[in-house]
Amino acid sequence: MLVASPSLFTFYRHQIRMEFIILATAHFMALITPGPDFFLIMQTALRMRLKYAWAVCAGIATANGLYISIAVLGLEYVRTMHHLMQALHYAGGMYLLYIAVLLLKAPMRTIDVKETNNILRLRDSKKQFLIGLTSGILNPKNIIFYLSLFTAMVSPATPLYRRSLYGVWMAGMVLGWDMMVALVINRRRRVDLSEIRLFRMEKIAGLALAGFGIALFLH
Description:
This protein is an all-alpha fold. It has one domain. 77% of the residues lie in helices and 0% in strands. It has eight helices and no strands. It has helices at residues 6-31, 36-47, 50-72, 82-105, 125-137, 140-153, 160-192, 195-218. Helix 3 (50-72) packs parallel to helix 5. The longest helix is centred in the last third of the chain and has 33 residues, at 160-192. The mean pLDDT is 85.
């Protein structure tokens, strides 16, 4: 009967640890880089109560979790479905441009003014969740990123349960980081942001989202 040596187990644990560290570091560096999700969260946290910004965060994290699941299961063929990827590019571009137009057209107003004609200002956690979910689903860079990450940094020999733990960690990091960003922005706007500064930041978010939307069309 063959018994693996302690040194072999130590080497295996070291390999697993290094794989996770590299994967988690690459994911976190991408997470802290401002993208469409950041500006979507920012505009919600600037104008609405924290629970609505967190609902957007939950939607974004759910969308990321879906794409992470596809990567964990090794469904690489999804990337070869050109019609699907092209549809995501165009749909994502149109959605971001739509959100951008709503922000750019919005007039200057007080922080807590209630609006009923702007979907971005609806005081409904479920609808804010759907806004975040739609943004995450329609961003094709999410699925491309996660598939590339698992292909390049996770060994094919890594068992499914361990890949699943990686996925749970990443989805949790997306939710935790986004909620922290929303918390910081929401608290700051009530402390030292005037209406004019809020107005300008809202326009910056609109321009940024428009830029991301145009980039999807040109990609």
